[in-house]
């Protein structure tokens, strides 16, 4: 709310300095009282905070993070299948589309399978990445996403910013009805395969928020996971 | 709600801890007095030496050092911030930012001292000491607690109790100008010199109203001795209300507090520093020499609060239940509670100084001199004459107390009689319901 400033010369009372200073002391004391004696609402969404008593709007950054908007392009992840292996079929589409040429893939054939491939190495150099999201657009299998809502955490070495398939493969698994590994015969037991098929959903044709940002995806949990793995310390 | 309860628990714990601490100080002083008597000296030799350590080196320095933390945390609370909390003890507890104290000390002590080539070598080293020591020595005459009988000895909570206590304060407050002036001059830097000139001009000006503001108190209590002045403030004047300096001399209190605030060279009187224009008289100092100048400022804040407490707020008198405590409690405990009351008042006043420091923007130079010579000095003079006349008419201070009550009422009245500015009308309403409604209607119409 803008203040209305009364632009006029000071009257006698204001010219005495002290009465106005006393009033202002009352204001600062009430602010101090509110902020020192009542606890802060740590809601990361500052506009939603209950600021009835404590009026602090500070976000304690590394511990509290403001939620990013849906569709925010964060750190990449390789989307896993229900069995934990990457959805990636090592088709090189993302590496080709990448304008910064920061993706390196080495493909290998899946043993005992005549057509399917998988990435032995899938390395993204986050220092070269320009966060354009073309790799996500290019992927025909929805195997790479930027929906983690995280920045690459800072590291002391350049090597720490090079993410290989082990660090990239994380987050909730995703399945679609037409996924070949669900349709074709598989090594999995029938029960497991049935469960996987039941969990699958139709492939999205519209770029909705739901496909940009996985619902129920918790930034904090991911951060805790990463911390538990000791990432970002190298 | 958890924080609310916690804060009060912390305050209570601090007060209880202070009572224990001062009981220990009293016991130490009594022991030392006993030792001095055993060696054939007067008892106060021993207690004074112990008090010099416990009061000045421990209490004063700890308070001043903690004030650096308080400045961060309290000012943060006043500005809707959180303040320093990144140092965690045991990886979990910020402890109100107190660990920053150690970090600060370590930083100051280990930083490189950089010397300007063209400095005046001797004075450059001398200036921080000259800035620090007079303010530090000021605390010697402050009576922190009452005189009690403990272990067969009469001990007081003060380092020295000279009859000319207030004059000692004036003398040393005047000396501290040298530190800042020499710091600026010896650095041989134009900007530091500018800061020093501002500091000396400001401090010399405010010295005048500082001195005059206390003349009224001297007239009222007929003494310069701070302990006698504190004792006189315990006497009842209107019914059960004690003859506090604040009651007898509200105007003197205002003038004194403002003038000594200007003497501490802190915002809003921080022209000598003015870090946005000239960095200040300590521009060329680094390392612990800067630390000393920095600490001198905080010591000054505590001293100002202590002198104001002793002269105007009843010193160590707890005011409430004092007679009962004196009659029923162990003298050691009574003394400790009194000393804690003194320290609590001091802390409250330092907090008030911080409130003012974050409240007001820096004065312009002509405003500073105008405030001193056009407002404070005449007010102090009027106060001296009114006090003199009142004491002449009625030596029992009754008339003076009623004049004080009238002054306080007038200040309250003037403060509360502000009119809400009404931008749309330009008129000055009276802040009553009608005026408010009118103002809002006009405001809405304006949009």
Summarize this entry quickly.
With 234 residues, chain A is an alpha+beta fold.
Report the structural category of chain B: mainly alpha
- How many β-strands of chain A, per DSSP? 5
Largest sheet of chain A: 3 strands, antiparallel
| Major sheet of chain B | 2 strands, antiparallel
Percent of residues in beta strands of chain B: under 5%
Q: How far do the termini of chain B sit from each other?
A: 41 Å
Spatially, the strands of the biggest sheet of chain A line up as 2-3-5
Largest beta sheet of chain B: what is the strand line-up?
A: 1-2
Q: Could you state the oligomeric state of the chains shown?
A: heterodimer
Share of residues in strands of chain A: 5-15%
Task: Encode the helix/strand succession of chain B as letters.
Answer: HHHHEEHHHEEHHHHHHHH
Write up this protein.
The complex is a heterodimer of chains A (234) and B (447). By secondary structure, chain A is of the alpha+beta class. In chain A, 28% of the residues lie in helices and 9% in strands. Chain A has nine helices and five strands. Chain B is built from 15 helices and four strands. Chain B has helices at residues 2-38, 43-78, 100-110, 121-138, 165-186, 190-221, 226-232, 245-248, 250-263, 287-312, 322-328, 331-359, 365-393, 398-416, 433-446; strands spanning 145-150, 153-157, 236-238, 241-242. A two-stranded antiparallel ribbon of chain B has the order 1-2. In chain B, strands 3-4 form a two-stranded antiparallel sheet. In chain B, helix 6 runs parallel beside helix 13 and helix 9 runs antiparallel to helix 10.
């Amino acid at each position: 709310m803008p203040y209305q400033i009364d632009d006029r010369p000071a009257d006698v009372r204001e010219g005495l300095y002290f009465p106005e200073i006393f009033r202002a002391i009352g204001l600062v004391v009430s602010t101090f009282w509110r902020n020192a004696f009542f606890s802060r609402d740590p809601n990361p969404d500052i506009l939603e905070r209950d600021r009835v008593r404590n009026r602090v709007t500070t976000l304690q950054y590394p511990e509290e993070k403001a939620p990013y908007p849906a569709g925010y392009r964060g750190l990449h992840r390789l989307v896993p299948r229900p069995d934990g292996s990457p959805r990636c079929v090592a088709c090189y589409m993302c590496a080709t589309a990448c304008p910064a040429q920061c993706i390196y893939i080495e493909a290998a054939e899946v043993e005992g399978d005549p057509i399917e491939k998988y990435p032995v190495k899938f390395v993204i150099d986050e220092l070269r990445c320009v966060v354009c999201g073309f790799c996500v657009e290019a992927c025909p299998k929805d195997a790479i996403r930027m929906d983690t809502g995280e920045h690459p955490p800072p590291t002391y070495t350049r090597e720490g910013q090079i993410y290989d398939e082990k660090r990239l493969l994380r987050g909730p698994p995703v399945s679609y009805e037409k996924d070949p590994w669900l349709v074709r015969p598989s090594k999995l037991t029938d029960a497991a395969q049935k469960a996987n098929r039941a969990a699958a959903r139709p492939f999205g044709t519209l770029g909705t928020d739901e496909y940009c940002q996985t619902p129920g995806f918790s930034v904090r949990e991911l951060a805790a996971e990463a911390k538990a793995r000791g990432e970002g310390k190298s | 709600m958890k924080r609310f309860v916690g804060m009060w628990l912390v305050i209570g714990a601090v007060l209880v801890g202070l009572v224990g601490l001062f009981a220990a100080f009293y016991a130490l002083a009594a022991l030392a007095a006993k030792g001095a008597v055993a060696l054939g000296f007067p008892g106060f030799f021993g207690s004074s030496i112990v008090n010099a350590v416990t009061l000045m080196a421990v209490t004063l320095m700890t308070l001043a050092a903690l004030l650096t933390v308080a400045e961060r945390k309290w000012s943060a609370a006043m500005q809707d911030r959180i303040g320093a909390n990144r140092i965690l003890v045991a990886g979990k507890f910020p402890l109100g930012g107190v660990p920053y104290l150690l970090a600060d000390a370590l930083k100051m002590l280990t930083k490189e001292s950089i010397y300007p080539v063209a400095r005046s070598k001797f004075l450059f080293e001398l200036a921080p000491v000259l800035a620090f020591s007079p303010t530090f020595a000021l605390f010697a005459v402050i009576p922190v607690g009452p005189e009690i009988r403990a272990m067969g000895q009469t001990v007081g909570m003060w380092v020295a109790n000279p009859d000319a206590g207030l004059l000692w304060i004036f003398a040393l407050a005047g000396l501290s100008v040298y530190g800042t002036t020499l710091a600026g001059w010896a650095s041989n830097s134009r900007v530091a010199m500018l800061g020093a000139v501002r500091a000396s001009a400001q401090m010399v000006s405010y010295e005048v109203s500082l001195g005059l503001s206390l003349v009224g108190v001297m007239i009222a209590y007929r003494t310069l001795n701070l302990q006698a002045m504190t004792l006189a403030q315990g006497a009842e004047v209107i019914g059960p209300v004690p003859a506090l300096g604040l009651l007898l001399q509200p105007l003197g209190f205002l003038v004194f507090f403002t003038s000594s605030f200007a003497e501490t060279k802190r915002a809003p009187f921080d022209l000598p520093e003015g870090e946005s224009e000239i960095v200040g008289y300590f521009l060329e100092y680094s390392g612990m020499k800067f630390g000393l100048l920095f600490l001198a400022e905080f010591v000054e804040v505590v001293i100002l609060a202590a002198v104001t407490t002793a002269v105007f707020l009843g010193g160590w008198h707890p005011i409430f239940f004092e007679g009962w405590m004196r009659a029923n409690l162990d003298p050691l405990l009574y003394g400790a509670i009194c000393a804690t009351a003194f320290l609590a008042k001091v802390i409250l006043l330092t907090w008030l100084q911080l409130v003012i420091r974050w409240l007001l923007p820096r004065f312009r130079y002509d405003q500073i001199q105008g405030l001193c010579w056009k407002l404070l000095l005449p007010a102090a003079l009027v106060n001296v004459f009114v006090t003199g006349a009142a004491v002449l008419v009625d030596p029992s201070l009754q008339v003076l107390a009623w004049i004080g009550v009238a002054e306080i009422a007038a200040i309250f009245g003037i403060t509360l009689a502000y009119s809400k500015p009404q931008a749309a009308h330009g008129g000055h309403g009276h802040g009553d319901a009608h005026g408010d409604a009118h103002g809002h209607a006009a405001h809405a119409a304006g949009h």
